[in-house]
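User: Predict the structure for this protein chain, please.
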Amino acid sequence: LKSASKNVKKSGSPVKKEFQGLPDKKIFTCLGEKFHSMFKVSYSTSTINSFGGINFADSLIGNASVYKTIDQMLGNRDVKAQYTYSDLFRSYFLLTLCGGECAEDITEHLRRELSRVKGFDVCSADTLLRMQKELATEKETIVSETNIEHDFNINLPMNRLMIKLLVQTGVLSPEQKDYIFDYDNQFIPAEKYDSKRSYKHAEGYFPGIASINSYPVYIENRNGNSNVKYKQAETLKRAYGVLAEFGIKVKHSRMDCGSFDKTVIPVVEANSTYFYIRAQRCENLYDQIGEISRWETVTIGMKDYEVASIEYAPFGGEKTYRYVIAREKNSDGQGNLFTGDDFTYRAIMTNNEEMSDKEVVEFYNDRGESERLFDEMNNDFLWKKMPFSFLHENTVFLVMMAICRNLYHFLIEFISRKLDFIKPNFRLKKFIFRFMVVPSKWIKQGRGYVLKLFTTKKYHLVFE
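Assistant: Here is the predicted structure, written as C-alpha cells:
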C-alpha cells in the first residue's frame, strides 16, 4: 500500500484526482477498501497438511526397517525416556524433507505438519539436542612433536550404523567386489567454543570423509588446525576396518595429494586392490619427467592433454610405482621453473598396470563426483549449521545428517522408478517442491483412515 500511495501521487497517474491532497494514511485506507472489494477471503479450521508427501516418505523408510535397526544398533535410552534414538533420526529426516534447517523448526514451524504422520510422536527441539549429546564420544587431544594440539573425535557406533543402513537398504552389498573408495577432508567454517583456526584463515572443523559411490561411509571429525596428513593413516585404517566388519571390500581407492604420505600408502595398498593418489611435486620427479621423450596426445573432457607413464620410487624409498603424468599448455605461456617449458604437469601415483594412461586420468578425475557430495551436505543437509559448541557433539550431528542424506537417496531412487515426475538426480529442494508439497488430509472411513490428496499426480503408484 505504501508503494501504491507513492504511485498515485505521481503526475500522470490515472487516479491522481481521486487521491489529490489526501495524507498517506487516508490513501492506505482507500486502497485497502478497493482491494477488499476485489478479493474475498474465507477461513476453514479443517486440518489440511501442506506436506502430504511426508506420509509416503516416512512409510517407505519405515517399511525398510530403518527405524528398528537404529534402535537395535544404538541401544535403549533410560527406562524413563519417552523417545527413542530412532525418533531422533526420524525427526531430522522428516524435518529436512519439509525444508527445515534446525531442530527449533520442529517446535516453531513444523510440529503441526509432522504430528499428522501416523505413529509418530513429535519431539521437542530440546529433546532432539539432548539425545545427540547422549550419542557423543569423548574427544581425543594429541600433542604433536612441534607442540601443536590436535583434537580428534572418533565415533565408531554412529559410523557402524551408517554402514549397516547402507547394507540393509541394498546400497552396499558384501557380494559386490568392485567398490570405489574416495577419501577427502572437508573444511567446515564454524565459530564454535572449541573450534580452531585453519590454514584457510577461518575457524572451524576439518573432518575426514570416506565415501563409496558418493555415499558417505565413514566420518571422523578433527579440529581446523590439524593438517590433513596428520594421523591420516590411522583414520583410514579405522574406515577400512569398519567396512570390513560388514563384509564390504574395496577394489579402487582414490585420494588427492593430501593423502600423498609414506604412512598412508601401505594402508591404502593393503586394503584395496588398486589405488590412485595425486602425487606432490618434487625436484627429483621433475628431473625424471624431463627425460620423457614420447608423449601421447589425448582428449579428456573438452581439453587436449599429453600423457605418459614412468616408474618412480617416492619418499626416497626403493619400491617403485607407476606415475601417470598429464601435461597441458599454460594459457599465459609462463615457463615452468622445474622443467623450463610452458606446460603444467600433474602426476597420479597408482599400482594399476592394466589401465591406459588416459583411462587412469579419466578414472581419477571421476572423483569430482564424490567432491560434489560436500556441497550437498553443506547446503541440503545442514552441515554448515552445526548446532553445538563442542567438536565431539557436532560429530554426532555430522554423521546423523550423512545418514539422512543416504536415506534420501535411497528414497528418491525408489520413488523415481515408480513416478515419472521424479528423477533420481533431483536435489533436495526440487524434490520438496515436486513431491513433498502436496495438500493432504486424513479422513476416517469405516474402521480405518484414508489419506486424501488434493492433486492429480498418481502418488499411489509408489506402493504398487
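The chain has 15 helices and 16 strands.
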